[in-house]
UniProtKB/TrEMBL annotation:
This is NAD-dependent epimerase/dehydratase family protein. Residues 25-253 form the NAD-dependent epimerase/dehydratase domain. GO terms for molecular function: aldehyde dehydrogenase (NAD+) activity. Transmembrane segments: none annotated.
Length: 355
């Protein structure tokens, strides 16, 4: 059970006409990359809103407090604690997740499925008026190239990994529970979130380049969608403000500007004064080798992430772009920060933080 750093709020009076944005909003995963960005934006732009961020990282929690976010140290395993934290909440953004291409199945089930069940149950009991559930386009991934994937396109029979599988199950259960309880819910599927403070995508690629481990895969023309974090925050706030009649819908979220991933990697290398990757690996060989390494680690070192993953190879070699037409039409989503500006901001932050 997590320890409470700041207590949950008492129930507040209904908002007045002079403060129509008075709401009590809970953000789970607030000590994570996306959740923290959402909580900070809410505090910065909604002076009458009361924002409670839930997370487990004490250093990041204190940083949230310094920025005006109420913070609660809580493990979402604690169903009773989640219920207490959400008591009185008008809206919930559930962004907490175990996001990793490798790990124990039980950990993914607990963090992605069980935690989501606890959050939804607490939101329903609290009488919340909106739940925004952050899912992932990883549920679409099947190792084959796809362009313009739409939200209702058929999903692969088998998920790419335990992360994608448990997020898919969580999304389905969240939608079902909310439908039964008439809790308005919207699902966001943001693709490859990046920006200052991210540790999952571009920093890992940079680290691989520094150690000479990155190889150009296949023909090097892989086209993908990426999403700048502030644009995802925009989408989350649009989902929070959507009318209650708009419920049960899922939305792809991207920057709307597909990029050649190896061009991005070359720009990253230039920004960090690193040599551009020049060694190549035939894609069939890279896939075969990564599969062999994964199988060996599952057998001999199941608790250790392999140095190369088949999923990672596919992400850098297989086209994947999403159709964001539904988010544009129904939420009014418009990627506000373009790809060139977003990459420049992110590269500059990575250069400043270079060890």
């Amino acid at each position: 059970m997590g320890s409470i750093v700041t207590t949950a709020w008492p129930r507040a009076a209904a908002p007045t006409a002079a403060a129509t944005d008075t709401r009590r909003i809970v953000v789970t995963g607030a000590t994570g990359f996306l959740g923290g960005a959402i909580a900070r934006r809410l505090v910065a732009t909604r002076p009458h809103a009361r924002v409670l961020g839930i997370g487990r990282d004490s250093d990041r929690g204190r940083a949230l407090q310094a920025d005006g976010v109420d913070w609660l140290a809580l493990d979402l395993d604690d169903a009773a604690g989640v219920a207490r934290a959400l008591d009185g909440a008008d809206a919930v953004v559930h962004s907490a997740a175990l996001s990793s291409p490798w790990g124990r199945r039980a950990d993914f089930v607990r963090a992605n499925i069980d935690a989501s069940e606890h959050v939804v149950a607490a939101g329903i009991a609290a009488g919340a008026k909106r739940l925004v559930h952050v899912s992932t386009p990883g549920i679409y991934h099947d190792g084959r190239p796809h362009r313009g994937i739409a939200e209702d396109d058929p999903l692969p029979a088998r998920a790419a990994n335990d992360y994608a599988d448990t997020k898919r199950i969580a999304e389905q259960r969240v939608l079902a529970h909310c439908a039964r309880a008439s809790l308005p819910v919207l699902v966001l599927r943001p693709r490859a979130i990046f920006g200052p403070g991210d540790s999952a995508i571009l920093p890992r690629i940079a680290q691989a380049m520094r150690h000479g481990r990155l190889r150009r895969l296949g023909d090097g023309r892989c086209t993908v969608d990426l999403t700048y974090v502030e644009n995802v925050v925009d989408a989350a706030l649009l989902a929070l403000d959507a009318p209650a009649t708009l419920t049960g819908r899922a939305y792809n979220i991207t920057n709307g500007e597909p990029v050649a991933i190896w061009d991005v990697i070359d720009r990253l290398a230039d920004a960090l004064d690193l040599p551009r990757p020049d060694k190549r690996a035939p894609l069939p060989l890279a896939l075969a080798v990564s599969s062999v390494i994964e199988n060996a680690y599952r057998l001999l070192r199941p608790g250790v992430e392999p140095p190369v993953l088949r999923y990672a190879v596919e992400l850098l070699s297989v086209d994947m772009t999403l159709d964001i037409g539904r988010a544009r039409a129904e939420l009014g989503y418009r990627p506000r920060i373009g790809m060139d500006e977003a990459l420049a901001i992110t590269f500059a932050a990575l250069a400043r933080a270079r060890p």
